[in-house]
Amino acid sequence: MRSRSVVRSAVSLLCLFIAGAFALVCAGAPARRVRHARRVHRAPQPYDPAKADVIGNDDPVIRELAIQALGHEKGSVLAMDPNTGRILTIVNQKLAFSAGFEPCSTTKPIIAIAGLQEGVIKDDTMLRVGYRRYMDLTEALAHSNNQFFEDVGAKLGFDRVMKYERLFGLGERTSTNIPDEQPGSLPTRPPLWGGVARMSSFGEGIRITPFQLALVVSTLANGGTEYWLQYPRTEQEVADFQPRVRRQLDIAPLLPQLREGMLAAVLYGTAKRSFDPADGEEEFGKTGTCNDERVGGRLGWFVSYADQAHPKIVIVVLLHGGARIISGPHASEIAGRIYHGLYEHNYFADVGRTEPTYASSADNSSR
Q1: pLDDT tens digits for 97-114?
Q2: Using DSSP, how many helices (H) and how many strands (E) does the chain show?
Q3: pLDDT tier at 96, thresholds 50, 70, 90
Q4: What range does the domain containing 210 cover?
Q5: What is the CATH number of the domain that holds 151?
Q6: What is the DSSP string of 8-62?
Q7: Does residue 47 belong to any structural domain of this protein?
């Protein structure tokens, strides 16, 4: 028994010796590094709306101001001369050449002209827009009141609304030398949701392009003349440019009432962000904000012109995206930056100038 006990003790000591030696070896060995893959988070590149544009003879001043005002917004700016139909610049041509978007509230000036021409309303007609609340045309345009224009549209009916939408060039191409322009579309029957009333307040069922909206407002600016839109890009096209009248609308007696509402929108209404009293120029405009279920996301429109005595420029701003900031008032803010820049460049001072200064056709930068 004694011998067995001795053996067990020896074995225990041997095990302790081996364990201790192994610990010493491990302690002396260099620690093994464990490498972890490092994730690289790259900041998204800021959006450049002018990146893919191909330009030739755009007005360099207007174009640069439009690019600066738009910044990294997902949007487009189109500027044109309302007295000739000549397009001065297009920033983000891909968006401008799209198949069309819902016009939102920018359809309201057409409904106003239709209502006045057809005797549905007069300049002093007061319509009920809420509980113990009434508006005339000026206030309805200034605040883009939906109920007012839904009532006018319902009284006009679908056929008469479509008549005036077509008169102003909706649903068809507006240009003679812009092959990428899309015609948009007009509905063949009242929309299922909201009918002609909603079509008259939001443009439900209508697809419109910046070209068509520019044509609408240029016709209001110059007194009723619709010009074919032209976008000369080469020096030869510039040399051969001649204004071409598309049709003449007998709307001049109705325009003072409409212009008063579009001016009110800029002074204190939905487009007041565009107004800068220091500029000394009067802008006339209309905003539009809505969700476009067909293309997805929100839309922000602002279409305007300046000035009334000698209208020189029409500006269309279109914004498209998912952020809440996308709206007509925000689009008007962008247009206001452009107008402010033009004022600083004395663009409106030279009222006798009929032709702007254009960049060389060799300048094909992608801004």
Answers
A1: 999 999 999 999 999 999
A2: 12, 9
A3: very high
A4: 60-344
A5: 3.40.710.10
A6: HHHHHHHHHHHHHHHHHHHHHSPPPP---PPPP-PPPPPP-TTTT---SS--HHH
A7: no
